[in-house]
Design brief:
Helix content is 28%, strand content 26%. By secondary structure, it is an alpha+beta fold. β1 and β2 form a beta hairpin. It is flat.
């Protein structure tokens, strides 16, 4: 949860988007992170689910 909050806070502080961050955890390990990129991309469809960063599977 802290990682998602940190992503969301950074997104706001850098004026990259809204206060939305997401983290996917599998078996206690973070496997993916994403953030809202609507403002940065000037694209109303650039929600978190579009910009996932896959760390490992």
């Amino acid at each position: 949860m802290k990682a998602a909050i940190d992503i969301a806070l950074n997104n706001v502080l850098t004026s990259s988007g809204g206060p939305f961050g997401a983290v996917i955890v599998k078996n206690g390990k973070v496997i993916s992170m994403g953030r809202n990129q609507v403002v940065a991309e000037k694209d109303p469809t650039a929600f978190v689910r579009v910009g996932w960063t896959v760390l490992q599977f």
